[in-house]
Design a protein that fits this description.
heterodimer, A: MetI-like fold, 12 helices, B: mainly alpha, MetI-like fold, 16 helices, flat
């Protein structure tokens, strides 16, 4: 019986495993292999040959790549921290009982359901330097002295894309945290009330510690997502050099420039950088658990 | 836990001002006011950009490019929707995206539910290894394999075809489908299945006559999530598609061109935006509860 189950189990898994092997595992291996070659898309210019670590050596000295890594890391730090703090506030608010809670939750799903590319277009129009609502509202409310060219001005470019990502993802973060909040037993708070603990103390002593697993999972997912950001930046800036993320640099190296070998090395580097963040998070989790 | 004496002491503590705020209707309103303001702020923050897209879509071109900005269209019009829908690229894009997202969803559900059956209802060696493989695939960065996919797709002569997208989108829809459906399969009680076996049903019959109907709601939710993911994809579409009549909606929306050429046709872009997004929002709101359950199964149970 056991053996039959095993055989049947693997048989049923076969189609799924075959697809995963073909669309993910084989391409991953192939990308790694390509990263050690000088392959170009326009074949015939130069025969593809093994170049060893040459691409990685070039990458180490590639200032554009370095800048794209820095840009991506800045974006990740900004968006993940804003999304976490705002998401936590929203989750705490929505977790309390009030009329219209269902409507509120529905409203929170709206940004999540809007495609990133579409959200980016919507915000690009809102950020318009002449006819944009953000400048109009800012000037009317006397927050801004005059209209700002949010998108073309390098000093506000990163803040502008971050705003889109924060808007689109904060509600989702809030929903994940909310799911975590709802499993905390109510009587813990009642007991704390009886003991005279303030709401502030309750938050730090009960909510945060019990929410820790949900918080960590949310942070990991958000960080990994932010590190591979492509859509928002591309819609806002194309491959403008000062606002390139790692993913944009890899994509334009492979597709626009046709440097498949070098671009693959960039991809592998991104993969390793993301892996590094995973390792940091997991170690952090282990350390704080002890 | 505290004693009764301590409890009564804390209850007596509030001073008279606090009592006034809690006892009278006006007082209660004042204490609740910051809370409701916060609720309103969150609500407006979540909704406003979409409202703005809708209002821009209904605003005639002449009013759109004028300052100061109107917050409601003075002369609402459907012109932008008509223009957007009569653009050939956008028409093709709606069809192309439906084909791509639809096929990816169906294939993922078919293959994924069979795999989920094995992972959720069978006990065998290597099962958890496969589960972890699927989970790690759901957070797999797509950019990491772009180089190889690009060469594979040109080698198979799939470049600039919808098949290239159907093929490459499986990488994010299938593992996700397997993972979420497995959690649905696991949640089913075992007695129906056993009864079917006692009646002499084969495992495959049990799968499609007993289990599949039971997880139908799960299939709908998972299918919708997979469909949304494929509908929203941009990186691969941008890399593997070249001809405008093969564009997907995300490509079409980012390459909208006005008749004049020097002013972006924001009214039409926003109309297209609303057309592309509205079905997703409606479906999401209708299936709200299930989607929340599906999302948390995909993200939190890790």
């Amino acid at each position: 019986m056991q053996r039959r189950q095993t055989r049947l189990g693997w048989l049923l898994l076969l189609p799924a495993l075959a697809v995963v092997a073909f669309v993910a595992i084989y391409p991953l291996g192939k990308t790694v292999y390509q990263s050690f070659t000088n392959q170009e898309f326009l074949a015939g210019i130069e025969p593809t040959k093994w170049v060893g670590l040459q691409n990685y050596r070039d990458l180490w000295h590639d200032t554009i790549f370095r800048q794209s890594v820095w840009e991506t890391v800045k974006f990740t730090l900004i968006t993940v921290s804003f999304e976490f703090v705002l998401g936590m506030i929203i989750a705490l608010v929505v977790n309390s009982n009030f009329k219209g809670r269902g409507a509120m939750r529905a409203a929170m799903l709206v940004p999540w359901a809007i495609p990133t590319v579409v959200a980016a277009q919507m915000w690009k129009w809102m950020f318009d330097d002449v006819f944009g609502v953000i400048n109009d509202a800012g000037v009317r409310l006397h927050i801004l002295h005059h209209s700002v060219a949010w998108i073309s001005q390098p000093s506000t470019a990163l803040a502008a894309v971050s705003a889109v990502d924060i808007w689109k993802t904060t509600p989702f973060v809030a929903l994940l945290l909310l799911a975590g909040l709802q499993v905390i037993p109510r009587d813990l708070y009642e007991a704390a009330d009886v003991d005279g603990a303030s709401k502030w103390q309750q938050f730090w002593r009960i909510t945060l510690p019990l929410l820790r697993p949900a918080i960590l999972v949310t942070l990991i997912f958000r960080t990994l997502d932010a590190l591979r950001v492509f859509d928002v930046f591309y819609v806002f800036y194309g491959n403008r050099p000062d606002t390139q993320t790692m993913a944009i640099y890899a994509q334009s190296t492979i597709v626009s420039d046709g440097h498949v070998g070098y671009g693959s090395a960039v991809s592998v580097a991104i993969f390793l950088i993301i892996g590094l963040f995973v390792v940091i998070y997991v170690t952090f989790m282990r350390v704080t658990e002890e | 836990m505290s004693t009764v004496a301590e409890a009564t002491r804390t209850v007596e503590r509030p001073v008279s001002r606090g009592r006034w705020l809690r006892r009278t209707p006006l007082g209660r309103f004042i204490t609740k006011l910051p809370f409701w303001l916060l609720i309103a702020a969150i609500f407006i923050y979540a909704i406003f950009p979409f409202y703005w897209a809708i209002r821009s879509a209904f605003t005639p071109e002449g009013e759109l490019f004028r300052t100061p900005v109107d917050y409601f269209p003075k002369h609402p019009t459907l012109a932008n929707f008509r223009e957007a829908l009569s653009t050939p690229t956008f028409q093709h894009a709606l069809i192309n995206s439906t084909i791509v997202a639809g096929s990816v969803t169906l294939i993922s559900l078919a293959i994924g539910s069979i795999a989920a059956y094995a992972l959720g209802r069978f006990r065998f060696r290597g099962r958890s290894a496969v589960l972890y493989l699927m989970l790690s695939m759901t957070i797999f960065p797509q950019i990491a394999i772009l180089g190889a996919l690009y060469t594979m797709i040109t080698r198979f002569h799939l470049y600039d075809s919808l098949l290239a997208l159907i093929f490459s989108y499986m990488i994010f829809t299938l593992p996700f489908t397997v993972w979420v459906l497995t959690s649905f399969m696991r949640g089913l009680p075992g007695d129906l299945e056993e009864a079917a076996y006692v009646d002499g049903a084969t495992p495959l019959q049990v799968f499609y006559k007993v289990l599949l109907p039971l997880i139908a709601p799960g299939l709908v939710t998972t299918g919708l999530l997979a469909f949304i993911a494929a509908w929203n994809e941009y990186l691969y579409a941008l890399s593997f598609i070249q001809t405008p009549n093969k564009y997907t909606v995300t490509l079409a929306i980012t390459t909208f061109q006005g008749k004049s050429g020097f002013q972006q046709p924001w009214g039409q872009i926003m109309a297209a935006t609303v057309i592309v997004t509205l079905p997703l929002i409606i479906a999401t709101l209708v299936l709200q509860r299930r989607i929340l359950a599906g999302l948390t199964a995909g993200a939190v149970k890790g």
